[in-house]
Amino acid sequence: MLTLNFTKFPVLETERLILREHALSDAETLFAMRTNETVMKYIYRERPKNIQEIEAFISSFNIGFANGDNLAWVIALKENPSQMVGSLGYWRTDYANHRAEIGYMLHPNYWRMGIVSEALAKTITFGFKNMNLHSICANVSPKNNASQQILIKHGFKKEAHFKQNYYFRGQFLDSEIYGLLNPGH
Predict the structure, then answer these.
(1) What is the per-residue pLDDT for 70?
(2) CA-to-CA distance for 146 and 107, rounded, in angstroms?
(3) Which listed residue, 80, 158, 159, 178, has the most CB atoms within 10 A of its CB?
(4) Is 153 exposed, middle or buried (0-12, 13-18, 19+ CB in 10 A)?
(5) Which domain range does residue 123 map to?
(6) Is the pLDDT confidence value at 63 over 90?
(7) Does 1 map to a domain?
């Protein structure tokens, strides 16, 4: 069975980015992103009410990592590693089947700069080589064309379209599942 037993948080680097652990100092930026309706347009989650909720959320990331349940990175530019510009990570890890769901968000000031693509490439490689995942999936709103396109660019295939399987704010919404198999398996 798959396990996530890292002795310390795996900081990843790309040409322009540092992917690091969440810190409480990221709370204000994360709160701003999670309450920004442009960022959250296709992320069907309740918005945080205050910074304390976000601080608890960050603590849950770090506890989840310590328990081997999830792995969530802050996306930061190398030129300013303390400033969060986005986040991405693995959630809902299915240990028995070596599968994890990947999710990401980015502050709108950094959209269309290739940042998510660069971070995604690094974390996909890490997921397959270091976490020993057999497959990675992403749950996407059928209306989120940008997210669909970035997943397709990285080799993901649409596996399913679920009709009205998610209830949020008084309506039933569709979701699409995209998947990527480990080419080394």
Answers:
(1) 84
(2) 14
(3) 178
(4) exposed
(5) 12-181
(6) no
(7) no
Tell me if 147 is assigned to some domain: yes
Here the CATH number for the domain that contains residue 57 is 3.40.630.30
The pLDDT, as a whole number, for residue 1 is 64
Pairing of strands 135-140, 99-106: parallel
Split at pLDDT 50, 70, 90, the class of 81 is: very high
Section 122-139 average pLDDT: 96
Instruction: Indicate whether 81 belongs to any domain.
Output: yes
Flag whether the pTM goes above 0.70.
Answer: yes
